[in-house]
Amino acid sequence: MNSIAPAQLIENLSWRYATKQFDSARKIPADQWTTLEQAMTLSPSSFGLQPWGFVVVTDPKVREKLRSVSWNQPQITDASHLVVFCAKTNLGRADVQRYIDRIAQVRGVPQDALAGFRDMMLGKVEAPGADNLPWSQRQVYIALGFFLSAAAMLGIDACPMEGFDPAKYNEILGLTSQGLTATVIATAGYRSANDSYAALKKVRFEPSDIIKRV
Amino acid sequence: MNSIAPAQLIENLSWRYATKQFDSARKIPADQWTTLEQAMTLSPSSFGLQPWGFVVVTDPKVREKLRSVSWNQPQITDASHLVVFCAKTNLGRADVQRYIDRIAQVRGVPQDALAGFRDMMLGKVEAPGADNLPWSQRQVYIALGFFLSAAAMLGIDACPMEGFDPAKYNEILGLTSQGLTATVIATAGYRSANDSYAALKKVRFEPSDIIKRV
Q: Which of A65, A172, A181, B1 shows a CA-CA span of 20 to 30 A to B90?
């Protein structure tokens, strides 16, 4: 652990904003992008089950297609990178087993020692009426939070976006057959000097309206 | 902006884990806690609408009550701080107007200039069949991600938790009458030297299983 000072954290989180206009000439260097991918991967999730997939789209032709089903928002094509945060659509026993296998592998523990944990997860994902997709989608938003926060720490601009057609994204990216559905997206890169939004004051309700104490 | 090095970011995100046993004697210093509250408040949300409330519970008696409806998990009482991340239950026109009022106030712009933005938001939250609660709950998970990421950056341990009874939380904390519902919680403080989970290797699927490239 190599913690940072509170003031530096707040400075970076205050610096970030939902970038409306990216400098299309500037690309995120490979080592920085790798770091952002690692940050996504390190996101926590319920049980650690990682009910997600992240699609990184850099192909300009695909980005054009996606823009056409994203209200023509320029960030889709102009940002250095686009990530489609997806939730698993058929979360179930196979995913739980795959995760248990992975724990056994990484930690070198026998499957038997993980039976209780496996059964607890199965009890959740196989419960009658289990609402696994909305649950997975909520987890995906943690990963979005980690991504945006990490970008801010690295001095990379980003824009989280919900204004797109998930069904069309699934179609264009072939997600359905992979058991994934597009849930939320983020574009990342560097703000254009012309983005007037960059200079606007950040608007938050008064802390006393948002934070209650008991 | 005062960015940090990629290695430091990854070091801190790798250091964090879902703390199972907190050192109940150690409290988060006030300035650090204030920073975590600021980080939550700075979380992005769709439209910037902040459809949430954060309840910080420090009263030991209330924490005992909450523990009894949280599978008796010790973190609820032993951690330095407990935050209940809540979503707004009746998100609608009044919330949109309150937000517009706040933008006008913070940025010093006339209400008229914000009419288009207001109408766009109303089109979303007042759409027939609008599913505002699940949508707000997803936003709440961004704030959870910001909180957990910020804690890791500051060297503060935390544990996100879904294993609690939201209806009982709403009752104990009087949330329903405030238009809020408990969505997810996090405990924060410092790991106990006895927490064997701290030494376990972090388990993530192979990046190639999680990240696709197009």
A: A181
Nearest to B55 by CA among B156, B195, B164, B155: B164
Provide the ipTM.
0.97
Task: State whether A56 and B212 contact (CB < 8 Å).
Answer: yes
Per the document, the length of chain B is 214
Rg (Cα) of chain B, in Å, rounded?
Answer: 19
The answer to whether B60 contacts chain A (CB < 8 Å) is no
Domain range for A77: 6-47+54-90+134-210
Contact criterion met (CB below 8 Å) for B108 and B62 = no
The helix (H) or strand (E) run that includes residue B60 is: helix B60-68
End-to-end CA distance of chain B: 31
Mutation to test the B interface, candidates A47, A203, A209, most B Cβ within 10 Å: A203
Domain count, chain B: 1
Residues 82-101 of A with CB under 8 A from B: 98-99
Grouped pLDDT means (10 residues each) for chain A, 214 residues: 96 98 98 97 98 98 98 98 98 97 97 97 96 98 98 98 98 98 98 96 96 96
Q: Is A210 left (phi over 0), alpha (psi -120 to 50) or beta?
A: alpha
pLDDT in tens, B144-171: 999 999 999 999 999 999 999 999 999 9
Q: Count Cβ atoms within 10 A of the Cβ of residue A80 and give its class: 0-12 exposed, 13-18 middle, 19 or more buried.
A: buried
Q: Alpha carbon of B52 to those of A6, A93, B136, B140, B147: distances in Å? A: 24, 33, 7, 6, 14
End-to-end CA distance of chain A: 31
Cβ–Cβ < 8 Å for B189, B79: yes
Closest CA to A20 of B100, B115, B117, B110: B117
Q: How would you list the strands of the sheet with B180-189, edge to edge? A: A211-213, B52-57, B81-88, B180-189, B157-161
CATH of the domain at B196: 3.40.109.10
- The model carries a pTM of 0.98
User: Is A22 among the domain residues?
Assistant: yes
Is A40 within a domain?
yes
* Mutation site for B-interface testing, chosen from A43, A148, A214 by largest number of B Cβ within 10 Å: A214
Strand partners, B18: B158
Q: Are A59 and B214 inside 8 Å of each other by CB?
A: yes
Q: Which residues contact A81 (CB under 8 A, 6 or more apart)?
A: A28, A33, A36, A56, A57, A58, A187, A188, A189
Residue B1 covered by a domain: no
